[in-house]
Amino acid sequence: NQQVIEMKLGEIVNSREAIANVLAAKLPIKAAYQLSRIGLELSKEIEAFTAARNAAITSLGTCNEGGAFEIKVTHAEYPEFERQMNELLAADVKIDRDPVRMQDLGDKAEVSASDLIVCSKFITE
Question: Which of 125, 117, 120 is nearest to 5 (CA)?
Fold first, then answer.
């Protein structure tokens, strides 16, 4: 019976570095495989967020005066941009994967406590 990992999109976006650190750690093969599967799902969410953020910047932004492709959200449009980003970051995300158990990481895994805290939704006791 597979569990579901539930997170807010903002948690995923804000934990990119910790996720990368955990995925880079030397782990037993089973844990590494499980984490890589979770990492792929999280990467898809980050890519979708980036695309949505870029679309908001494009729709609310203005090109620079020289006509070069440099879009900026103006001061007047920023409240709407911020509202859209906050709404997006508050979105619920469900990953259909079992969390990895801490004991499966093994005794030799070099993962910082701060990274484990950030990744606590998908690394459980």
Answer: 120
